[in-house]
Write a structure and sequence with these properties.
Layout: H1 2-32, H2 34-58, E1 61-62, E2 65-66, H3 69-117, H4 122-135, H5 137-153, H6 155-179, H7 183-222, H8 230-240, H9 246-262, H10 267-292, H11 300-335, H12 340-346, H13 353-366
Antiparallel strand pairs: 1-2
Helix pairs in contact: 2-3, 2-6, 2-7, 2-11, 3-4, 3-5, 3-9, 6-7, 7-8, 7-10, 7-11, 7-13, 8-9, 9-10, 11-12
Length: 367
Amino acid sequence: MEEAGLRQRVMMLEFWRDLLLVLTLAVTGLVYGSGFLVPLTFAALVVVLLNAVADRVSAIPLAGQFVPLWLANVIGILLVLFGFAVIALILSSQADGVAETIPRYAERLEAILASLVSLVGEENALEVRQVLQEMDMSGWALGALGSAGGFLSGFLLVMLYIPFMMVETGPMGRKLRIAAPNRRAAAEISKITRSISRGLQRYIGVKTFVSLLTGLFSYAVMKPMGLDFAETWAVLAFALNFIPSIGSVLGVVLPAVVALVQFDTVTPFLVIVLGCGTVQFSIGNILEPAIFGRSLNLSPFLVILALTFWTAVWGVAGALLSVPIMVGFLIVFAHIPCTQWLAILMSGDGDLSGIREMDGQEGAERA
């Protein structure tokens, strides 16, 4: 009896040792393989988006018939490539101007903050000035801009992956069915892969759509005010909308701070805060839930944990990818019987009906 208990404890220790080793190797691989994995992950999400756009286009009636699938794929590719080209053009054309302006903005912002703090006493004002100098806000901003430039430089690599991934999509489904041990298993695998594909396409498609609206409406608020580099801040609002909670706040704070240091009056600052804040709140809390239907019911703690982890591992790109990656795992786990318990743990209250509703809505739309 004692030997059996000892053997069980040894097996448990070996299990946790092996698990810790695997996790350590996985995190190490993610960190050192970021140059390969980040463009690959972005390419996979873009392929999902392309399929979602192509499905929408193929459902459009044309002269009494639906758009052929090949034509829908071509239109989807052109639309997505056009969007990426616009983003790349904006960032590349304004990056130098933003880099040149950031140090001047940082100095003016430090002066504004120091003058505000001086109201509480000269000694405190001196301490705050010293802290602001040590913070080197211009260095932070330039570092973030450098990260954006690095992301832009990986654009060609992402574009290289996409056509090969799209070509492999059809054969991969057939290979999975062939690899199944029997027909029943092949049918189950086919059903699961279709459900996963529909869920991912709906999430990525809707999230991209509402992010695009966020960027456009934010630009409509910033441009009439004469804000410098309004196009860049609109692109950032689009990208930051993929980051939960914090992204929406940053999408308002960044242009608001620029307005504060650019203009001599506080009116543009207030207009941008109220205008962009209203856009973020309306789209994030009214429009997006209305389009999605029931929420995916993600655990708020795991969302913040995923954001922290992927930001630490992959930087700015990891922050943008954190929730799409988490949603992808949730959808995959929810559709595989042996991993549904993981999806339940990842959810907020164990209710996975939002994912099932996504499948149902997509099926109804196709019908």
